[in-house]
Structure formats: C-alpha cells, structure tokens
Design goal:
Number of strands: 52
Structural class: mainly beta
Radius of gyration: 26 Å
Strand content: over 45%
Helix content: under 10%
Distance between the termini: 51 Å
Length: 641
Amino acid sequence: MKAMLTGILALALAGANAATYYVDSSAGDDARDGLTEATAWRSLDRANRATLKPGDRMLFRRGGLWRGVLDLKCGDETARTYYGAYGVGPKPVFLGSVERNRTSDWEEIRPGLWSTRIEKGEDLECLLAADRFADWGASYEAGVKGRTFMTDEKGAKFVRVTCTEHPVQAKRNHLQLWGRTKVGALPGPMRFRFKVRGDFLPQKAEVMLPYRPYTHVYDGGVAIAEKAGADGWHDASVILANGDVPLADGVIHFNLGELAVANGKMDLMPVGLYRVSADPRATIGKDVGILIFDEGTAWGFKKWTLADLRSDLDYWYDEGNDRVVVKLDRNPAEAYSSVELAKTWTVIPHRNKHDVTVEAFTIRYTGGFAFSGGGANRVTVKNCDISFVGGGLQYWRTNPDGSRTPVRYGNGIEYWSPARDCRVERCRFWQVYDAAVTPQQSRSTAGFDNIVYTDNVFWQCEYSYEFWNHSPSSHTFNVVFEHNTSVDAGYCWSHSQRPNPNGAHLMSYNHVGAMTNQVIRNNVFCRSSDRGFRFFTDWRDTLAMDHNLHYEPSKTLSECHARAKDGKRGWRFGAGPDEFRRYQAETGLDAGSLYAEPQFVDPAKRDYRLKPGSPGTSLATDGGPVGARNMPGLDRDQSVQ
C-alpha cells in the first residue's frame, strides 16, 4: 500500500510541475520563453535546446513547417514527455529535405544537365589551428587490420592510416578514423581544411560522438583537389553543416572501410577548422535519397555517376561537390513549382529514448527514416502521417569480383534492437522505399519485448511490415501486428529503382533467435506488386496468424523459403481463392481468415474503412470489422494533404 501511495504521489507531483512549451514556425520568436502560445519559440534548433522534465509537453503549431532533426527528450516511468500539436489546421510538418525551388538555385552545366549551385563560402575566422588536431585514433573491425599513428616529415606532422589486410566484403565502418579534439559545440557551418595523399582517400566527414549512441551531425562531402601540389599532397576540405542536435563532445570522424585497400595507406595533415560564410540553406551535406517534384506528383531516378544520366529526371548526388545533377530539358525550378532534395538521415531519432509519446505530426521527404534507432523503451508514435521516405545510400557492397554495388535503405518507423514496450498506432504511411514499420536486429544479445502495431493504414510502400532477427543470442517476445490495413504494397516510387523489387505486405527474413507470441491478426491485405507475404524462415510454431482478410488477385499469395537442411519445407501459393484454401490446408495458418475483395468507403480519398456489407466487416476476433479502426478524422475527407 505504501509503495502504491508513493507511486500515485509521484504521478501527481509530475503533473503539477509539468510545463508546456509552444513552437510556431511563422509567428514564434526564439528570444521568448516558449511557455504560452503568445510567447512561442520559432525554430527547431531552439526546441532541441530545451530541457524537458518528465511530464512536460512540447507542442508545435498546426499549419507550421520545420526542416531538420527533432531531438526528443525522455520522461521516466512516472511521467512521459509528450510531443504533439496545438491550434487548428493541418498537422505540423517536419521535412528532412532542402528545397531548390528558385531558378537561381540551378545552373546548366551542359545542355540538358542541371546542377544545384555549389556553395563554397568564405573562411571567416580560424576556430581551431592545425596544432589542435595533433591526436587521432582509429578502429579496425571485421578482419580489416592495420595501424594508425602520428608521424612527421620535414617538420610537418600528420596522421598515417595503414591497412595491412582488407576483406573484399569490408563495410565503411570497418575502418574508422577519429579525431580527439571536441568540435561539436562550435557554431556551424564550419570548414575543415586538410591535406591528404595515399592509396585511398576520404569521401565524407562528419562530427560524431566518440561513444554510444554515436550520434552524428555536421556531415559533408570531401572536396579534394584533382592535382597534387609540388609536395605530393592534395588540398582537401569539407563543409560541416546541418547541425540540428546539440553535440558538445562531437569529434571529426571519417569512415574508410569501403575505401581502404590491402597494403595501402592514407596520410592526413590538418590545416585548420574555420567558421565559414556558407549559407546553410545552400548546403546539402548528405546523400539525396529522393528527388521529389510538385509534392510527389513526380520523382527522380537515382543514378551513381554523371555518365549514367540518360533519361529525364535521372539524378546523381555528387558528394565531393555537395551538389545534385539532374537531366532535364529546362531549369527544374521552371518545370516544377516545388523541388525537394530528401537528405539521408533520421528526422526523429529515438535511439536510447524512453517514456515519450509523439502524436499528430506529418513527417516526409527524407532519404533515411522518419523514426529510427535502437534502445527505445516505452516510445509511442500515434496519429502521424509518414510519406516519401528512404532511398539513401547505406553503403557500397564489394562483390567477389571486386566491383561495387550501392545498397540503399530507408524505413518509416524502425525499432532497432533492443526495444521494449513500444507502440505505433493510428498512423498512415505511403511511398516508403523499404518498410513502413519494422523491428530489426542483427548482432544484439538483447531483443524485442512487447512491440505493438495497431490501427495503421499503409498504401504504396514496398513492404508494410518487415521483420527479421539475425542474432542467435537474442529474443523476440510479444510482437503484435493487429487491426492494420495494407493496400497496394510495392506500387511505390522506389519499386522500379530497387535492385531487388519485391513488394509485399509482410516481409519476414531469417529468424534465428528465441521467439514467442508473434501475432498477425485482424488485418486487411489487399493487392501487391509481387506477393502478399514472404517468409525466409518457417516460424509457424511461434506465430498466431488468423482472422485476416486477404485479396491477391494476380500475384503470389504466400511464399516461404525454409530449407530442407534446417528440417523445414518451403512453400509457394499463387493468386485466387483456390490457392488460398490450399494455403490454409497445407500451412495451418489463417484458418479463420477470409479471401475476398474488400470494399472500401472511398479509396480515391484514402478512406480505407470497410463499407457496410463488405467482406471482413464481422471477421475480427471480437465480431467487428478487420483492418484499421479508431483512425482519427475518418468522418472527414481523407485525401492526402
């Protein structure tokens, strides 16, 4: 009883002492206190610098728009922090993109090829001289071996990175070079000038925490002079911009794993760190995963070299010069009223966040993720609209013949292991490169506990729900996917650009860790570009899959690639009701489910409620309709705003 009273008292005190902060992108002022609508802050930077206590709320004005990264603050088990909306009108919008809507943003570099203007800026003052960068370290992983040390030549000091062994499949983070000088608290944008030479050269730099969670900001492509000087060194520099999250302990960091070669070396000689006049709006600083025109009526086709730009709207992100080049017969800002460059980052990271709720936001135009990160505990995302996500470069995969293949990625809401007691509910997702929602893990010894996805609507995402667990020492307990509606999986912007187009409502890769109570129930799965659902492991002994409405009129209904050597047998079932009945009989899954075409209220306006009398209206385990229920605003026009 005493413990209960103590808990009640703690909750009451948290509520009594809670503060509410307001952010208004049009009428706010960062010099105010942010504690009332009349004294609201304006910028995302000011919101990120706020210190929230358990129970505090941060509200963004409806109709407002912000670009960049939102840094969530944690609550505790007695009281969550809350991020939401106030006022009337459309949900507040968070964009992970930069706009290039003015004709002056573009220049024609040759007939039919248009480049964003390169912002070089001027060095204004030296923030840190070369001698402040006299200490560097490196990490070697996954079979990459070598040594990193400081040395000098003719009185000039520099860091030498050697690589004695380099496996063909080495990834970028398998060799990392770290500065030891803290630069994250310095005002951006900054330019790090250095000289470089060697058998491999850096392509990108960033400011990163040298410890978990390895948060990074201020990244940019490295510009290296084509010709070396008389001393054999190439002049090099990188503009470090895009710093939206405070990172006082951040240091300069290079990923070199993909670039290094066996028995090779790289020398780097710091020149200095300078505050630069570059307009932050003019810098991109990250790979561009999607090029979006007129709010999604058209999009670019990502290519990897200038020579690959052959068809209209082909585009290439030139990392060294931090520019986008697109093929078009006229200035892109004349051809389209809006041009958005989706940068490859996470708009709302939830890595190591806990006891926080995010509600009623619109997140779009990012080449990475809307939400992502490992270590999330008691994080809830509800009533959010997430669209045009993913497509950025994750890494270059080295093939056995030595050639390299780009690997792209990007999900709507990703929980990376470990994650516990998290929910995604009443959200809408469309036009996502990979998965709308996904729990994933590879090397963690932890896992997933109590993850729930419910009352969500997905359309035109490559996958609605992707799930895999590659770690034998991990676990996945109580993951529930229930009362969701998935329509037209794979019919999205990214499908034709993927090296492996395979649209599916459910995509389940290998599972090797312990699993219990996996639930896929009371959902609607309607049409896909390739298959309804695809399993790479037969995990029926832990799966409760039932009371779903399936409709797959022309593609594969279900496919499993389980291997005989694992004591399992795979399967494949085609389209139509006869194949569905065979699937039920042979797999034992979906025994109480139904195959029929759902009748939606108004699919043209994305109102995917079931009409009265539609198949599935009494199919759910409680006798009610399957699919998303309790969606806010379903009595109004559901067309995408």
